[in-house]
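Bumping with the actual sequence this time:
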Amino acid sequence: MLLPQEIIRAKREGAVLPPEAIERFIAGLTEGHVTEGQAAAFAMAVCWRGLSLPERVALTRAMTLSGTVLSWDLPGPILDKHSTGGVGDTVSLALAPLVAACGGFVPMIAGRGLGHTGGTLDKLDSIPGYATAPDIAHFQRAMRQVGCAIIGQTPDLAPADRRLYAIRDVTGTVESLDLITASILSKKLAAGLGGLVMDVKAGSGAFMATREEAQALAESLVTVANGAGLPTRAVLTDMDAPLASAAGNAVEVLYALDYLTGRRREPRFHAVTLALGAEMLVLGGLDPDHAAATTRLEAALASGRAAELFGRMVEALGGPPDVVARPDRHLPGAPVLRPVPAPRAGRVVAIATREIGLAVIGLGGGRTKPQDAIDHAVGLTDLAAPGAEVAAGEPIAMVHARSEAAAERAIAAVQAAYRIGDGQGAGGDPILARVV
């Protein structure tokens, strides 16, 4: 009999688990026969010992089949993008309506914050009324009406992953290549996609700190996904600095709206958004090459069509219809706004990006336990970019806090995360590599 504790023990000792053992464990997790403690022990054993490729495929399939697998009848390719997580990475909010404006259909199953990184669903929860967990019928209706919908895992979609995801967040097992692969792909396979583009981050704010680790994860994702019948490509992107100049929840929603409407388009964020969007359009057969796809994406931004579809998506999922035009009316704001003064004059040489993410959590914008509530109003804005020249005392960020004490702690954390010196600073092309 394949008892949960025996499966955990076998993996702890380095055994290669047969598919039926993995299927049994995941079924128990779904049905409630496997406890949180056992799931945490399994995750740690996997993190410590690793999984072979067949085990990885078996875990992905078991989590996919733990719930409903969607199918679509829509007049265009079913496409999605997923990021492995970073700081200031609000690309999903901009990219889903942008690709929909170009003829793709984007049923995006997103997640909540993990560790020091922000979660797309936590950002969308900043919008009053927005249903991040609608039923399947509501999700499908929004897709037909708008062409894109960003939601979380419903009880029907990969429920085993939903349980394991929350446990990984607080047990030090977030960085496991095997668990990341299975978690991401189980949701994407359950969504009934025809093509997937992965944004795999590398750098001080990524789960994979080195380019070599990120390359290994990208290859794992592409290999397992294609082996499961889902055409997938990966783009390696830089996370040695926050991708956007905002980090938090409501502040990142506002940043995405500024991007879509043209009020603000920062070069690094724009480059990553266009690179991922172009891969999606080419993968879906909507454009023959990256150049043509990029031209189409730029046109969808310039015309306002992408911003329009974001507003329609919000309305279709229960949010206010005027959030694009009047975000100040709906998005929460923090009562304390304080600048972070540069401790010295010079250029921003480096940023400890993980520490920026932890500063947001310290403000209340993230979780330390699965049941923690999030303060959607708090965060950081106007983060100085790598290479920026600053004067002593000049702001390198703005803190949005619930209290003066919290603001003071965040100011100290941000100052400690920034290295200001006499060099030129990092920067350059945020696109590191492509994996097909």
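The tokens above came from a reply further down the thread. The chain has a mean pLDDT of 93.
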